[in-house]
Amino acid sequence: MESTHPKLEELIAVLERLRAPGGCAWDREQTHESLVQYLIEETYELVDAIESGDCDEMVEELGDVLYQVIFHSDIAAEEGRFTLEDVAAHMTAKMIGRHPHVFGDAVADTPDAVMENWDVLKRAEKPGRTSVLDGVPQGMPALALADKLLGRAHKVGLLDATQPGAVNVQTEDELGPLLLAIVASAKANGLDSERALRSALRELQSEIRAAETAG
């Protein structure tokens, strides 16, 4: 039977050859930890490609990210921990389980309803999590982390994330220059914008945990 994804299988075979005895010394010595820097770099390069809208660049950068997934899976397989098939099987089960409105009898006709179901199912899958902050990666860029934490604060009733607050910016064309102006002002006064925002986010997380405890 002809393979449905021959080029994917060829890529997997190339990685396995590189890491096999007699292959590439550099590839052989890599670990999950040593590859983290490349995973981060390739992910940001993919973001750039998406934002540029260049299809050729997207193909290249998606390939680089895909290669990282295969690379990590091959390392784990060599250690007897898990395989690429395990990764795919887990993701397949997760997506089917998280979409009962497609694969089951649940009803979710709007994106908001889908996300509500997603949150309920996620909580059921991870009963050990006791806070809405559990699972939020603290290493995210500060602005992305801020967006994530504001959503969590909304969930516990600490604030209404649907309201614009003191600064009502309605378009990204307005938002970009405003953010740049804030960073420029901070730089002129010797302030670290990233550190300042992260400090504020630590305080917000404390407030979220306090709200959860009080609730």
TrEMBL record:
<dbReference type="InterPro" id="IPR011551">
    <property type="entry name" value="NTP_PyrPHydrolase_MazG"/>
</dbReference>
<protein>
    <submittedName>
        <fullName>MazG family protein</fullName>
    </submittedName>
</protein>
<dbReference type="InterPro" id="IPR048015">
    <property type="entry name" value="NTP-PPase_MazG-like_N"/>
</dbReference>
<dbReference type="InterPro" id="IPR004518">
    <property type="entry name" value="MazG-like_dom"/>
</dbReference>
<feature type="domain" description="NTP pyrophosphohydrolase MazG-like">
    <location>
        <begin position="30"/>
        <end position="103"/>
    </location>
</feature>
<dbReference type="Pfam" id="PF03819">
    <property type="entry name" value="MazG"/>
</dbReference>
